[in-house]
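Reviewer 2 asked us to include a model.

Predict the structure of this chain.
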Amino acid sequence: MASSSELGCAYAALILHDDEVPITGEKISAILTAAKIEFEPFWPTLFAKSLAGADLGALISNVGSGGGGGGVAAPAPAGGDAAPAAAAAEEKKPEPESESEDEDMDGFDLFD
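Predicted model (structure tokens):
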């Protein structure tokens, strides 16, 4: 969980962005001091440098948009093509495991 100083820096950066003021370490420090939030002196500078050149508006807009969570499965073909595809999938059976794996484990019992 983020500390109160980290959250304070994040909120201060959002306040500055909302007021269309450039985000600097000094301005973040001023907001945190006015809010009586105790913070390590490196946090405001760290946040200001990490947000330098970033489009904070785009970051805010894309918070809930998700990421590369994978693609969506393709829809089933229309018409009578679905049955042959299912039959082709059933034809592919897994190969039986070789007995060499069992032979490697001779004399081994997990609970002995």
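The chain has a mean pLDDT of 78. The CA atoms of residues 28 and 78 lie 58 Å apart. We have added this to the supplementary material.
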